[in-house]
Design a protein that fits this description.
about 130 residues, about 0% strand, rod-shaped, about 95% helix, 3 helices
């Protein structure tokens, strides 16, 4: 009789434990679903942010390339203008030196400052010396 009562008590205790484990498993399953949904939404948000950043970077890169092209063109034009302006007067100065012009002639006829005229004259003299040695 007492063993029957003990058996029933153990049986009830097992049943309660089984119910408690089932409730705990159900709550855990529900919590896992919530976490999965949260992480799925977070992943989607991160993908959207990466797409926005990537498109922004691509747009910025294109703008930089366009600006770089414009800058290169501007530098090239500036170099052309400077070489035309500078080249004509320097070339003219070299021609005048070949004909025996003085530094004052270079200043007055080529629009050079005196230091430039002196420098060109020195370069021409060095050029003559080097050509005489060879």
């Amino acid at each position: 009789m007492e063993s029957q009562w003990l058996f029933n008590l153990l049986l009830m205790l097992q049943f309660v434990i089984l119910i408690a484990v089932a409730v705990w498993a159900f709550r855990l399953s529900k919590r896992l679903k919530q976490m999965k949904q949260y992480y799925t939404e977070a992943e989607l948000n991160q993908k959207k942010q990466v797409q926005v950043l990537a498109s922004g970077s691509i747009g910025m890169g294109r703008r930089l390339v366009a600006i770089e092209k414009k800058l290169n063109l501007a530098v090239e034009k500036q170099s052309e203008i400077l070489s035309k302006e500078g080249g004509v007067s320097y070339n003219r100065a070299m021609e005048l030196l070949e004909m025996g012009a003085t530094i004052d002639d270079l200043v007055s006829k080529c629009g050079l400052i005196r230091a430039e005229a002196e420098l060109i004259s020195l370069l021409k003299q060095e050029s003559r010396r080097n050509s005489d040695y060879h």
